[in-house]
Structure formats: structure tokens, C-alpha cells
Specification:
The chain is α+β, with helices and mostly antiparallel strands. The protein has helices at 2-17, 24-34, 44-53, 61-74, and strands at residues 41-42, 78-83, 86-90, 97-101, 106-110, 135-138. Strand 4 (97-101) and strand 5 (106-110) form a beta hairpin.
Length: 140
């Protein structure tokens, strides 16, 4: 019982740390994101389907989107752009690379040390490189 209480408190703290009130819907979204045994990739639509499939009450797409965006801004999730109109989110916020399968539309993690870059351009004046992540597109 203590483990569940700690998890619920952690979720409430993540919500508040993101500037969000811990409503029933947001707690449900956070549970689906952070109460997993392993990290995973998702889109807003796939998260919506996952939550709906479990027979939970309906949560608006706008609430899911706003909650995910707030978690991303707070550093709890990482956004991965695979094209100009498609974003995936990752619950693994450590530096790592990805394979993106253009056929199945799936992301797969690549260990950060498995990609070696021999030359990286200088950042524009007044800027510094925060992180470097590679998305390698694959197809059948």
C-alpha cells in the first residue's frame, strides 16, 4: 500500500512541478506515462487510444495534449520530431538515439555510445549545443 501512495504522491508532485493542477484526468494520464516498468515512445493519438482502451472515463484530446506538453517543458518527457507534422514523445529522457521505421512508424532506442560523430558544426553565435541526438530512418 505504501508503494501506491508514494507513486500517487510522485505523480501529484510531477503535475504540480509542471504547473498543472492534479485533476483526476491528469493523474490518469500521468499514471499511464510513468507507472510502467520500462520506458516507451508514444504519440498523442496512441496515448489517447491506450487510455480509452482501458475503459477509463473519456479524457479530451486537448487535456492529453496540454498535459504531455507541460511534462515535456518540465523535462519529464522528451519530444522527438520524425517529420514536420509528427511528434513522438519518449519517457526515457536520458541522451540516446533512435531508429525510426518509416513503414511501421515505430521508434527504437539506440544506445548513445553506439553512434560516433566525427564532426559537429559550431553552434550559432550566442548559442551552445545542449544535446545531440540522431534519428536514423530505416525502411524494409
Amino acid at each position: 500500500m505504501t508503494k501506491f501512495i508514494n507513486q500517487k504522491n510522485d505523480i501529484i508532485n510531477k503535475l504540480r512541478g509542471s504547473g498543472l493542477r492534479p485533476t483526476k484526468q491528469r493523474i490518469l494520464i500521468a499514471k499511464n506515462l510513468f507507472e510502467n516498468n520500462r520506458t516507451f515512445h508514444f504519440t498523442i493519438d496512441s496515448l489517447n487510444k491506450k487510455i480509452s482502451k482501458k475503459g477509463n472515463e473519456k479524457i479530451s484530446l486537448a487535456t492529453i495534449y496540454n498535459t504531455v506538453e507541460a511534462f515535456t517543458e518540465a523535462g519529464y518527457l522528451k519530444e522527438i520530431l520524425t517529420s514536420k507534422n509528427k511528434s513522438y514523445y519518449d519517457t526515457n529522457i536520458k541522451s540516446h538515439h533512435h531508429f525510426y521505421d518509416e513503414g511501421t512508424k515505430e521508434l527504437t532506442d539506440i544506445n548513445y555510445n553506439q553512434v560516433k560523430l566525427s564532426k559537429v558544426p559550431m553552434a550559432p553565435k550566442g548559442k551552445k549545443i545542449k544535446n545531440l541526438e540522431v534519428v536514423i530512418r530505416i525502411q524494409k
